[in-house]
Amino acid sequence: MSARFEEIDWRPTAMGEISLRRRRDPLSGDDVYEVKLGDEYLMSSLFTTGEIELARIGLAALSEGPLDVVVGGLGLGYTARTALDDPRVRSLVVVDTLAEVIDWHRRGLVPLGEGLANDPRCRLVRGDFFAMTTGEAQRGLDPEAPGRRFHAILLDVDHSPRHVLHPDHAVLYTRAGLTALSEQLLPGGVFALWSNDPPDDEFGTVLAEVFTDTAAHVVDFDNPLQGGTAANTVYVARRRDG
Known about the structure:
By secondary structure, the chain is an alpha/beta fold. It has helices spanning 49-60, 78-85, 99-106, 113-117, 129-134, 175-182, 201-210, and strands at residues 5-13, 16-24, 31-37, 40-44, 67-72, 89-96, 122-126, 150-155, 185-195, 212-222, 229-238. Helix 6 (175-182) crosses helix 7 (201-210). The longest helix has 12 residues, at 49-60.
């Protein structure tokens, strides 16, 4: 049994101080893993439904395989793990800007880490997803194959299109940014985005200007900290065939 609270790792980064913590849930007795950036909670293994549904809903929009997939944002690995659990997925590139987070997985400091790091279909890539898709020097989301396109891109980095972790991310959620992202997809490919906010009509309108078959799925889940339920949003959109 673990100690009641443990800070597993702490490091300064260009985005601020990041820490990985483990605590024991007093009700269930289970270990809960949490990631903080400065004083802000980024993710918790207590709330994984949204991350799981991002991959499940996004890939469900594709009827055939095999599939080549990108996940933007590694976090605790739940989106990547769910993608790899889909038997149609033959390759997965996971892009994260923080080498520290990738290192946690490779060292097995988080529960899903070793399984992701050792899966031959999966590559963990350090990189700035936003610069790789919308930057002036962008060469695509696979550093080993510039210009490669994918069947699906699943993105979970910012809190929402309106609440971004860094000002440079905001351009992605504009028409120009989404157009650049769509060019990373094969015709008919799918873009799926996690958001902590309710469906945003303004963003949905911009999304529909670039993509087709757009939808905003509300994902409900239990909230044991506050009681009752909470909700996330998963946006799904398809690249036009033209």
